Amino acid sequence: MKEIEKTLESKSVRPTAMRILIYKYMAEKEIAVALTDIENAFAKSDRTTLYRTLKTFEEKGVVHQIDDGTGIHKYALCEPGCNCELDQDLHLHFHCANCDETVCLTEHKIPHINLPEGFIAEDANLVIKGICEKCSGQ
User: Fold this and answer.
1) CA distance 6 to 86
2) Where would you tag: which of 15, 70, 86, 107 has the fewest CB atoms within 10 A of its CB?
């Protein structure tokens, strides 16, 4: 737990008991999770608290939000050293059509894209869809 507390503090997030539990849950999952997944895991917790925790994590660069095309936003922990900058920290995501899981492929970075003059990028997301290694049996 001390390592999680240090990680949260390094991002200027006060390590409350609920924040530590949510961080630990997300770290153990190793896949992107939706708010409903967290609600189901912490059924006795207040939904607003869970939502606010995710939003705080997102604002402070603890997690990033993924739009995988399912209509449900998912969240994944940022890798160490990530600051979620468009020019530096973008990576691929993979959504499995079979098991419906979305994973970060952090080792596959998205190269910087030069937009035409006058265009300002605010967000970017690249999701590959197909069958994951677990479902393909390879």
Assistant:
1) 25
2) 107
Give the amino acid at 47: R
Rounded mean pLDDT for each run of 10 residues along the chain, 138 residues in total: 90 95 94 95 92 94 90 88 62 92 87 88 86 88
Range of the domain at 68: 2-136
Exposure letters 97-113 (e unless 16+ CB within 10 A, then b)? eeeebbbbeeeeeeeee
Q: How far apart are CA 124 and CA 115, in angstroms?
A: 12
Contact between residue 75 and residue 54 where contact means Cβ atoms under 8 Å apart: yes
Give the count of domains, the chain: 1
**Backbone torsion region of residue 6, taken as left when φ is above 0, otherwise alpha when ψ lies between -120 and 50, otherwise beta:** alpha
